[in-house]
Amino acid sequence: MTTTNFARLQDRARIAAPGALDGVIRMETYDALKEFFGRTDAWLFELPVYISPTTNDYQIETCQQAIVQRLMALERPLAPPSGTQTPSYLSMCPPQYMPVVQNDVQPVESQNPLYRTRRVGVLLNAGSRCPYLRIDLNPNVNEMWVATLSLNICDPMDADGFAEPPDWVMEKWSGYIASGVISRLMLQPGKPYSSLPGAQYHGRKFNDGVGLARTEVRRMFTYGSQRWRFPSGWNTPRPRLPYGSTLL
Amino acid sequence: MPAYYQPVSAYLAVARSMLQDLVSPYRYADTDIYLALNTILGEVSRARPDLFLDLKYIRPLQSGDLGDGLPPQYVSPTDDTTMVPIPSKYVNPVVWGMAGWLQLYDVADTQDQRASAFLQKFSTHFLTLTLQ
Fold this sequence. Notes:
The complex is a heterodimer of chains A (about 250) and B (about 130). Chain A is an alpha+beta fold. Chain A has helices at about 5-15, 20-40, 165-185, 195-220, 230-235; strands spanning about 45-50, 55-60, 65-75, 120-125, 130-135, 145-155. Chain A folds into two domains: about 5-40 and about 165-220, no CATH class; about 45-155, no CATH class. Chain A contains five helices and six strands. In chain A, the strands form two sheets. A three-stranded antiparallel beta sheet of chain A has the order 1-6-3. Chain A has a three-stranded antiparallel beta sheet with strand order 2-5-4, with no helix packed on it. In chain A, helix 2 packs across helix 3 (about 165-185). The longest helix of chain A is centred in the C-terminal third of the chain and has 23 residues, at about 195-220. Chain B is mostly helical. Chain B has one domain.
């Protein structure tokens, strides 16, 4: 769908690169967006994964017009989010809630942290639309984990030939993304709009935007938040053991 | 549609106007003008392949879409109404190229200076930011 942000981006490119054709602008927009999301991980998506004792491999289906490029986190919430409440993107650091009452589906792991299963996995074929998630250790019970995924655009485009990234991304960083498009256009040889200095200027602006977006996403859009995190001794998924005790 | 396109007959009409060849019997046969159009489109595809890939990226690119941007070839007179996939902003230089190429012919009205002027306009308009 041609959003106002895409219309603005295309108009910026038409003016900064006079003579550029709309199809070529859309082609370069695709490449610029691909690089932007690849370097920033700005398009985050939380997906419930239903863990079964019988398998360690799970096919991820985001139902988005996007590929899964990275597994950012694997967490376990207190209860599965309902279909309407599942955030479409933007992970907000889900807390590590654990059930404190035993029931049929959840063991009493929180009563004894030594039995906690590490939530670690890998994507076997990252870069495809429905990659496989292989978890390292199976909890041997039916559980619902939440995979935080980094997405990127992919073909096919919409009916107007545009990619379909989250609109808030285009709203927030449209100027930088437009610079990426213009830089790529100006690098094309033998065009009325070819310009090496212009490509360098807009390329620097695009890189600035990538750095800014990457930092903002890592700080989850909070102003002046701390750069550091607790050292791994306090932050590890494996609990600290009392002196003298051993793991089973 | 983000661009307008012209049929082959429009290119022929404008080329004849540039060549001052509007009254029958014509100095330049239709087949020659078709040959000029095909030749110039080949030149354009070499210098500006993006012109022939434009439509490919305006529509959603589908799996198996292997259009490689080869310039089309036209045959007189069956292709008179066929649309030439050159966006409207680049129609004029194509016609200048056709006129220049035709005036290099060894015929009675040949004017090499005029031909080179047309060809110069053709190339500079495609490759640089000029108004002519």
